[in-house]
TrEMBL record:
Occurrences of domain Metallo-beta-lactamase (ranges): 7-190
Matches recorded under SUPFAM superfamilies: Metallo-hydrolase/oxidoreductase
Protein name: Metallo-beta-lactamase domain-containing protein
NCBIfam families given in the database record: PRK00685.1
Database matches in Gene3D superfamilies: Ribonuclease Z/Hydroxyacylglutathione hydrolase-like
Species assigned in the record: marine sediment metagenome
């Protein structure tokens, strides 16, 4: 499984012969808008963790360009279906099979509404289960005891956790989250893209190293494989 980072919580996951785009927010992200052309992105599916602008901004354009369906909770499914865009519902607690593998939708503790004010339902995290490896994408969330359930569903090989603090967990809580999900390898996301979530990269990495864990921070367009 190959994971490419495009800033904030935007990821491209190559899994089981498919490319999955998660939470596309590029054209208004100062860090990525000049480096990535959304029309160049391949997508077989677009997964949305919740409806905030910094997660859905480019979803409609990429869906129209690629024909990829949008996968999200029932409110997200309904929102895009009403716009005439193909969408697939996957709500918290649900496990769904796709042609590339299985995805379980799990709890995230956060808020969610669309930029136009319409209700976005409960925010989600996702466990992507490939043939050999599994990754957990927490989405925007606080630390929650619910994360202790994650290893009961899948052995996690990479945890993708927010570390920007203020509107999600920060690095210290993300260390505890990595204990809860029983995965010491963490890809940090949701930092630097907005003024109030700028972080000290070296300090965040030290927080993980001191706990015997690895925090990976990727540049825009950089990838890692699990
Ligand atoms: Ni959010
Ligand atoms: Mn966000």
């Amino acid at each position: 499984m190959k994971i490419t980072y495009y800033g904030q919580n935007t990821l491209a996951i190559e899994i089981g012969g498919a490319t999955v785009i998660v939470d596309p927010f590029i054209t208004q992200n100062e860090l990525s808008k000049d480096k990535v052309d959304i029309m160049d992105l391949k997508a077989d599916y677009i997964f949305l963790t919740h409806a905030h602008f910094d997660h859905i901004l480019d979803a409609e354009a990429i869906a129209k360009n690629t024909g990829a369906p949008i996968v999200g909770n029932f409110e997200i499914y309904q929102y895009y279906t009403d716009k005439g865009i193909e969408a697939i519902p996957l709500n918290q607690g649900g496990l769904r099979s796709f042609d590339f593998g299985k995805v379980k939708c799990v709890t995230a503790i956060h808020t969610s509404s669309f930029p136009d004010g319409s209700y976005g339902g409960n925010p989600s995290g996702f466990i992507f289960m490939g043939e050999e490896k599994n990754i957990y994408i927490a989405g925007d969330t606080s630390l929650t005891m619910d994360m202790k359930l994650i290893p009961k569903w899948a052995k996690i090989d990479l945890a993708i956790l927010p570390i920007g603090d203020v509107v999600t967990m920060g690095a210290e809580d993300a260390v505890i989250a990595s204990d809860f999900v029983e995965c010491d390898k963490v890809l940090g996301v949701h930092y630097d893209a907005l003024p109030f979530i700028k972080i000290d990269h070296a300090a965040a990495k030290k927080t993980f190293k001191d706990a015997g864990k690895e925090l990976v921070l990727l540049g825009i367009g950089e990838s890692l494989s699990v």
